[in-house]
Amino acid sequence: MRKILFTLLLAVPFIAAAQTTAPMGILVSQTQGTIDWPKVVEENDLDYAFIMASVGATIIDSRCGINMEQAHKVAMPIGCVHRYDRHYSAQGQFDNFKAAVKGFHMDLAPAVCVFSDGPYDLNVKRIDALLALFESEYGVKPLIMTTVDTYYKLFNLERYASYHVIIVNEGLKFPVTRYTFWQYTGKEKVAGIMEYVPGLKLHPTYSLNNIKLK
Fold first, then answer.
1. How wide is the angle at C-alpha 66 spanned by C-alphas 63 and 71, nearest 5°?
2. Fold that domain 5-207 belongs to in CATH
3. Which of 77, 99, 162, 212 has the highest local Cβ count within 10 Å?
4. 118: left (phi over 0), alpha (psi -120 to 50) or beta
């Protein structure tokens, strides 16, 4: 995977019409199986990785710990992702995330993934409580990872304006929301990883320093 040039669209908030490079990254989970992290670093032009850690209050990604450990050995900056589940309390979910990452090092702010759950109420109070727990523990606001539809449904409000956003909008179209990271595909091919992997681009007005843990 190479850093690629892309033309910025005026329709996207906060983007100037110019060409620039987009720092590239990946999102990995147990779905990708065993990852050759030295090869990932040596043979790809990648700047960061997000690692799936936990889902709800009961599921820990089976590759989370080994991916964090091996990514750290090759000096790949990493952040970790928790998938929100409306069925569980904020505290239960946060405790599950902490158990998943305990003893390992994170460079970047963690992310809370919130996807629309069909017609069901996602429980905004519970989401806000979970975000607050992450901020209290790590000293920075967590990233919000979501789709365009869910962003407009839940997060297009002033109280979320200071949160960085990972927007999942796969395909060639730029997101129409504000974003810090854009998951532009779920099927990137990366040397060192047998399975397809979600690919990310960092918005050109940000750097990793904006989301580093203090």
1. 115
2. TIM Barrel (3.20.20)
3. 77
4. left
Task: Kindly state the tokens that stand for 3.
Answer: 């850093």
Tokens 């999102």: give the residue. 27
* CB-count burial class (<10 Å; 0-12, 13-18, 19+) for 117: middle
Residue length of the chain: 214
Q: What is the three-class DSSP state of 8?
A: coil
Cα 133 to Cα 113: distance, rounded to the nearest angstrom: 15
Q: Is 121 exposed, middle or buried (0-12, 13-18, 19+ CB in 10 A)?
A: exposed
The answer to whether residues 28 and 40 touch, using CB atoms and an 8 Å cutoff, is no
Structure-block tokens of residue 167: 């927007």
* Banded pLDDT at 1 (limits 50, 70, 90): very low
Amino acid (one-letter) located at 97 = F
CB 54 within 8 A of CB 64: yes
pTM: predicted TM-score of the whole model, two decimal places:
0.89
